[in-house]
What we know:
The complex is a heterodimer. By secondary structure, chain A is mainly α. Chain A has five helices and no strands. Helix content of chain A is 62%, strand content 0%. In chain B, the strands form nine sheets. In chain B, strands 3-2-1-34 form a four-stranded antiparallel beta sheet, with no helix packed on it. In chain B, a hairpin with a 4-residue loop joins strand 31 and strand 32. The longest helix of chain B is centred in the N-terminal third of the chain and has 15 residues, at 2-16. Chains A and B meet through helix 2 of A and loops of B.
Amino acid sequence: MSPSNFIFGLFFLSTATVGSAKLAIAGEPEAARQKELVHLVRQDCGSCHGMTLKGGLGPALLPENLRDKPAEGLAATIYYGRPGTPMPPWKAFLSEAEAAWIVDKLMTEFPQ
Amino acid sequence: MRLLLIAFFALFLNACAGPQLRGTSDLGLIIERASGHVTLINTTARQPYARIGGLGDLSHASAVYSRDGRYAFIFGRDGGLTKIDLLEARIVKRIIQSGNAIGGSISQDGRIVVAQNYTPGGIKAFDSDTLELLSEVPAEFAPGHFSKVVGLADTTGNKFAYALFDGGEIRVTDFSHPRQPTTQKFPAGKQPYDGLVTPDGRYYLAGLFGEDGVAMLDLWQPEKGARKILENYGRGQEKLPVFKMPHLRGWSVAQGKAYLPAIGRHEVLVVDVATWKEVGRIPVRGQPVFVMARPDGRQIWVNFAFPDNGKVDVIDTLAGKVVHAFEPGKAILHMEFAPRGENVWLSARDDNKVLIYNTENFAKLGEIPVESPSGIFFTSRAVRTGF
């Protein structure tokens, strides 16, 4: 093994480790599932929050609207709903980790 | 002489090439919610004939028609109001009238188009010729608090009835003097989510989300105030989650009865329009969104909220039960009947198609490729009150 190959091997190992550690923390859904979740948010959450997430009968869900709100509370709102408002619980269709992933994307930049 | 003949012939050809005359009663449009386009269609040919773009955010867009059925006024989610000429297949005029809109309506005399807005909460009246702003009525229900407006419907005398989601009121604004409108206010109940005017223009109903019941106002005797019908239809049972708000319009009335979606129950509620008493409830396969009568009132077609939005149930009003249940496609968002009801057109959003069915034998007649279709609006709406 040449030195350069060895270095490359080390580099590969370290990025792979970092990648999997991140996966474990964020519970990032797989690519196909991410696509489903994005479709769910834009189309079905969009019934009330707008397809562009600028709001409708429900509030706007753009990063500037969510900035001051705790991510955990937002994820709980998706998962359990919010009694007294029309926001229903979505727990039959996604996991808590997926709700957290949606919040994370909403707070930064939601995919098209 | 020869030259003269040629000139004459050219003139004759020119006349032939002039615009073909045609009526508008079998035309319509399909909203393509994601791409800001509308597809123009013909219900006789059952085919599209043009496509127009540049209409902005059309998620939850709706359309109303001028009295002659030639012009469509399209209300976009982003506050866009676009006037389209169906014969020339072009945009006549487009304005941005608010920040967040939910629909609109046109006056009895066809001169005023009114938009209903979430942000800023209220309604705005426009000249239907020029789209010039005539007046604006904010939905202020407490000092400094403006409500989202839902359920705007035209009624007789250039009056418009609507409800305030946050304010819990029904309001009736009279645009007889379009620049000096007057408004009456009626307490209605918790969180009205949509409304309808009966086809005769007499009653306004506002469905309530925050409580079991429907608020009803007799527009012929508004001094009597709004009252509740179908009170406590949920019988205190816990509601099922509602993943999409139902929609109400005058199409709910058939054969002297109103067929209304229950909230948080997989049922269609049946009310006698003479007594406003519940006379039945029909179990269906999900949370109803659109409960639409075929123009003759013999059938009621029902589509559903997520996750049952691939299903459609058909109720026979004579039998009082579902007689046909099927899964025509992915995400059936809207339905529209041919003017006299022999066919129905269904938007299958996630199939990128509009499907056409025979309503008598439920056979599929065809389909049209359309990108992410939602609302379908035929010009037959032009002559109906409350559409």
